[in-house]
Amino acid sequence: MAIPTGSMGDIVFLLLIFFMVTTVFVVYRGIMVERPRADMTERLDQKRGVTYMWIAAEGRICIDDRDIGMDAIAALIYPKRLAEPKLIVSVIADVRAPYGTVADAMRQLREADALLVNFATLHAR
Amino acid sequence: MAAKKGKNKAQPEIPTASMADIAFLLIIFFLVTTSFNQEMGLTLTLPPISDAEEVQIRSKNILNIWVNAAGEVLLAEEIVSLQQVEPEVRRRVLENPLLIISLKTDRETEYNMFIQVLDQVMKADAKKISLAEPD
Lengths: 125, 135
Description:
A: alpha/beta, about 30% helix, about 25% strand, elongated, B: 3 helices
């Protein structure tokens, strides 16, 4: 019995639309960060109200695709915090970043009253 | 001229046989170049800045964990290995449910080491974790 293959095109288009809608192009804009691995990694469920703060291995900090100096972080984050009370700042720091930089960044976040922090990690192998 | 049976006007038809091929090509392209957008990590709440001045907490309710620049872990003044942190913390939290874990990491410590220690503490089901300012 020959299996009717007439609908193969339909199925493929359905899958294509699915992937187009659920995925994003991965574009690295200037900062390559290797996230550390942790067993207690959990998915960050909150979609809106998340700001991403990238910290490179050499201590460079990026928020909203722009380099930012350490002292300017609080001023940048505070308006976001006012706009979104449940703001979560996701700190995406490289494994080799010095903790001092991360600690200073967290102090800035505390000054901006952004107390919900998520350290971006991957699942342990 | 022989009368044509069927259609009088020729209806040009676009061949659709390769539609599935094109669709497969596009799907492979998107599969390869995109990724599911999923942020994962460890979530913590930082203490508000006004509490930075030492709040009076009984010292028996605080467990100090210090990590130095070389990545060595000092738990309550004793050197422990990374894997020992979780069972130690779990034991102490069971003894004292009000226990607050204060994690102080040196400025020069690698961020990865900080995450590993934090991971161990979170694995031990410690709910009250406080990050202390480095010296």
